[in-house]
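Protocol step 6 of 9: fold each sequence in the batch and record its structure tokens directly after the sequence line. For illustration, a two-sequence batch is reproduced in full.

Sequence one:
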Amino acid sequence: MKVCFLTFDGFTDVDLFLPWDFMWRVKIPYGANYPGPWTLKLCADTEFTRSYSGVDVRTPDTLEDLTDADAVFIVSGDGSRQKLADPAYMARINLDPSKQLIAAIDGGVLFLAHMGLLDGKSATTYPTVFPELEAFGIKTIRQPIVVHGNIATGGGCLSTQDLCHWIVERLISREAADRVHRSFQRVES
């Protein structure tokens, strides 16, 4: 199975690094210890992307790699608006919710709205992004995660865990998703 992350310059660090780590833990012993095929890809239109805080990340995979992914995770960040306004960039992103799981966090949800994938559906996003999403005619719901079939939207950076849990549960099993999720829990007194 292949999980691709759509990233771009100006992405929000936690919206990429936390879900990447969650998905990475699918294969390791203190995560799900999944023995099957599991590939992660960082997809962008450039070889490197820089987060909003200045962390450079090598992005060796292309936007075209998103097309045949089993699941796609769209990150958020201030750089999303520039990409959304670029027709050539947007034309390279081909997602199909009849064949793929598609998750987006915060401002990444705007990609789904822009592509028409949220038409007739409700969604959630980051609190300051609600007006932009509503401008697309999308009914917004203020909760951590909203799921419609193979599309899930998340509101608030820590909702990335909920989105990742949803992906792993759908691709592998609830048990695998729960095991990875437990590996993130803080120690309680």
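Sequence two, same batch, same settings:
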Amino acid sequence: MKKIGIGALLFLVGFLAWGPIAAAEGITVVVDDDVKEYDQSPVLKEERVLVPLRGIFGDLGAEVTWEEKTEMVHAVNQEIEMELPLNSSNAIINNEEVELDVNAQTVNDRTMVPLRFVSETFGAKVDWHDKEKTVKIVSAETPDEELPLPESVPEDEDEEISLVDFTD
């Protein structure tokens, strides 16, 4: 009986310690049709998916640095500059403060960042597919689909084609 009580107590302590951060077992992250495997699995916090910062920033083509002293993530991608302090409810995007749904935080010695916030800040499109437990991201660097050619092109070389100027 004592073994059951001690085991239940240890389970309860472990559950309470990790209750706010649940391992997102079975969640798949797909960036530009490429399934991503990170050194730390995604985690759920307050109904948000967090992933390792170096993985997602690299996937989105951003240069990232970590400032140990201030616990600040700096990331740059084309015209977007992001400062993301650890355990803060705010980030700074191009010198403007923005409120976060969930803080960047450390999990198993990895700095984890909110996937949707980071991806959308860098211009990516993000979709959550609940049934499959999959996050699909299309980066801003992915070219749009090529426009289809018109179904008919004038075959007669003498046929006149007129252009319309809409700039006036």
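Proceed to step 7 once all outputs are recorded. Observation for sequence two: Residues 2-18 form the longest helix (17 residues).
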